Each structure stands twice: as structure tokens, then as C-alpha cells.
Amino acid sequence: MNRLPNILWIVLDALRWDHLSCYGYSRQTSPNIDHLAAQGALYKQAFAQAHYSLPSYATMFTGLYPHEHGVERSHRRIDESTTTLAEQLAAIGYETACISSNPYVSPDYGLSRGFDHYHFSNSLRGGGKRADRVLKSLGMADQGAARGVRFAQDLIPSCTQPWFLFILFSETHEPHAPPLGYITKYGTGIRHWLTHPLFVLRTPRLRRVAWYADEDEWRRVTALLDAEIAYVDHRIGQLVDSLADQGALDETIIIVAADHGDFLGEHGLGGHTFGMSEFLMHVPLVIRYPPSVAPGTGVDRIVELRDISYTLMQMIGATFETASAYSARNLLAASPADRHFAYARRRQADSGGKRAMAGEKWAQRFMKYDDDVEVLRTSKWQFRQYGTGRCALYDMALDPAETNEISAARPEIVEELQATLDQFLAQADHSRR
Q1: Are residues 152 and 102 in the same domain?
Q2: What's the Rg (C-alpha) of the chain?
Q3: Counting Cβ atoms within 10 Å, is residue 352 exposed (0-12), middle (13-18) or buried (19+)?
Q4: Which regions in the chain score pLDDT beneath 70?
Q5: 351 to each of 40, 261, 274, 374, how far by Cα in Å?
Q6: Tell me, what CATH number does 373's domain have?
Q7: What is the largest CA-CA distance in the chain?
Q8: Domain membership flag for residue 1
Q9: Which of 56, 161, 295, 431 is disulfide-compatible with 259, CB 3.0–4.6 A?
Q10: Containing domain of residue 378, as a range?
Q11: What tens digit of pLDDT does each residue of 84-122 get?
Q12: Which pLDDT score is estimated for 361?
């Protein structure tokens, strides 16, 4: 019997698709990811199912949509009866490891279940000590990328079975404070270098930056984000080079993705606390595995992060067991039965979150964006149904920046997509009966 392939699943936290150079970004931020894409498949229409980490990772690990797993607020955790991808891979003989720098991917939320090895790489867990934040603002610490890659490089050679490694990089998540050598990679010289620590300490959350930032400050934040991408890309290159040195590269399925995106001033918003948009849903996705994926494959069809676990199990000749009411797409082979849309949703902040934000003057400006919303995204349309009853429609082919809401002008499209959404949600309701 042939040995099962290894699996390396890399996630860059809060990274929107359009800041990677393999997607046409003007800055060359991601040469190593670009190389993986050139050797495999680049998905041009991949979408997250939630606007922030916890529900998105829960969906990726379980194959359940947010309205199925219910882990949408920070006091919830995955039900013990729900099996994760790591548990299923461990059951068929994989040695499993998780290197996380995001507190949501931890035992606290049940998302570390099934991993033989669990390593939290980020010294800034839960916000971290102020001393840690100051070190990061000075470029003297990252958010766990260096430690995580070293842990992986030590662990992989010791595995005697096929291995599954999930590694999460948080450098691309706010606040954006790249290490020394990257601070002014896309900046404007000595002024940015000298004022960098104060700027980083002033901008810990993009949602707050949106309260006061002008175009120059957003350009600076964006330059720091791009530098963080370049830094993480460098660390990914180190990890991939290690696999090549061990002769394991072509025996390893490599996936690169993000859990969601971020606003960078669009619609007056920053981060991903408020609102729901293409800028939060549209994410990068790359798959490299020479035995199954032809080099230079570009995939234009709509896919979801939810599809990754199903596809991984199919690639190794197994079935992903899930309680979902919905079928899944195979990312490597389209089927006529595939849904032609991606689904995502956002839920309002819970009462604790609302109380916390009520004391922040800046937050009051954005509370109007704190609403329940269901989203359908087709190749042409983005349709939103809000908890208040209103809806919104955007023509993504003509208006990718979502500047022109056209529901009143296209009632027939609204009616069609509303019916599709209702049928989709009813399918889960029916399965619970």
C-alpha cells in the first residue's frame, strides 16, 4: 500500500485576497506563495463563511456552516459530538499537529481537538503584556511566525507516520507591526522609521483607526500590512524549503488560505468587527500537490473555505464525516450538482461586546454596521439580507468596490436570490427535524 501524503495547511489570519501578488497586486508581497500557486491551483473566487476567526475556523475544521455549528460568539465552543478534520485524520493513521498564534484555535474553543501536538506560538496571547506589545512595536518580536516555523521544522523529521500540520500565522492580523528589516519595506524612509513605534502603539485596532485616519495614515497602515505579508511569505518559504531538503515536498499536499479579510478604509471601516462585505469574505486559496493538481491551474468557479476539509479527505481516498445538511464541492473537480453561490453570515455582537463598545466614543460611529446579515455571492451578484428586514444588492462584475447598491433597480434579481437564500437556510432547518 502506498504511503498516504502529508498535509500542510497554512492559514494567514485576516488576509484579504487582493494583497497577494499572485492575484495581481501591484506590490510583490508574496513570492513564495506565488511560486506555490504557479506549481498548483490558484482559486480566484474563494469565500469565507464568516467575518471573524472563531466561526470561520469552526467551519473549516468541521465542514459545517456557521448556522449549523453555532459557534459564532466568543463564549461558544465546538460541541463534543462534532468530529473535526484532525480527529478524522488521526483515526486513519495521521500524526497531527497544530501550531496556532490565534487564541480561538485552542483548547478553550475545542478547535485543538484531534491534534497529537498543539503549540501556541504567540507570546501576545489574549492581548499580551504591554512589554510584549512594545517589543513588537520596535520590530523586535513577531506574533509567533519564527517560533512556529522552528517548531514545525523540528517536529516534521521526527514523524514516523504521514503527518497533518495546521499552522496559523497571525502577523497579517491587526495591529500591523512588522519585524526589523521590514518596517520600511513599503514605507517612505526615515520619517516612518523614527515614528514607527508610536504609530503602532497608536493603531492597535483598525476599527479604531477608522475613526480618525486620513488617506495618508491608511496608506501607512496598508504599507505595514504588506510588509507583514512579505515577512510571513518569507517564513512560509523557509518551511517549504525544509520540506524540499527532506525530499518530502512533492509528497505533501500544501494549502494556503485565510480565515477572512479586513477593511482598510473602504466604506469608512477598518478591521473586521463591523459590517459585512466582499473585503471580509473574499480570501486567497492555493493548493499544491503535483500528483493531483496541474501546475498553473487557475480556478474561476465559486468555492468556499468549507470545501477544504472535504477535498483533503477525497485527495487521500477517504470520506469526510460530517453532520452537515449540505453537500460539498470537490475543489479539484467541478460537478454539475455544485451550488453556484457562496454563503456567509454575520451575527451582531453579544450583550457583553455591546457593553464594552458602549464606553468607547469611537465605536458609536460604527454601531449602525452591527447587524445580523446573511450573504449570497454568485459570480456576478452579492446579495445581503439583514436582520432588520432590508436587503442590498451589488453587481460585483461592474462594481467590485460595492459603491452602488442596486436592489431597487433590480427587483427581479432580489426576488430570485431571496428565494435561493430561503431555500438554502430551510435545508438546514429541515435536517434538524
Answers
A1: yes
A2: 21
A3: exposed
A4: 1-2, 123-133, 188, 350-356, 358-359, 430-433
A5: 45, 25, 15, 20
A6: 3.30.1120
A7: 64
A8: no
A9: 56
A10: 344-431
A11: 999 999 999 999 999 999 999 999 999 999 999 999 998
A12: 72
Helical (H) or strand (E) element with 415: helix 411-431
* Residue type at 20 in one-letter notation: L
What is the identity of the amino acid at 56? S
Which residue bears the cell 486513519?
92
Last residue of a domain, one of 288, 323, 340: 340
**Among 310, 340, 370, residue at a domain's last position:** 340
Residue 119 belongs to what H/E stretch? strand 117-120
> Are 221 and 200 contacting, i.e. CB atoms less than 8 angstroms apart?
no
Specify whether 328 is located in the same domain as 350. Answer: no
- Note the pLDDT of residue 44: 98
Distance CA(109)–CA(104), nearest Å, equals 6
- Domains held by the chain: number: 2
Q: Are residues 368 and 418 in the same domain?
A: yes
310 and 375 share one domain: no
Residue 326 resides in a domain: yes
Q: Give the long-range contacts of residues 417-423, CB within 8 A, separation 24 or more.
A: 417/376, 417/378, 417/381, 417/383, 417/393, 418/383, 418/385, 418/391, 420/341, 420/376, 421/374, 421/376, 421/383, 421/385
Per DSSP, helices labelled H in 203-342 are: 206-212, 215-245, 278-281, 307-315
Q: What pLDDT, on a 0 to 100 scale, did the predictor assign at position 341? A: 98
Say if residue 219 is in the same domain as residue 312: yes
What the block records as the C-alpha cell of 216 is 495618508
Nearest 10 degrees: CA dihedral of 213, 214, 217, 222? 90
CA 328 to chain centre: 19
Those residues with Cβ within 8 angstroms of residue 360's Cβ, 6 or more apart along the chain or in another chain: 208
Q: Does residue 269 sit in the same domain as residue 402?
A: no
Confidence (pLDDT) at 123: 66
Residue 240: give its domain's CATH number. 3.40.720.10
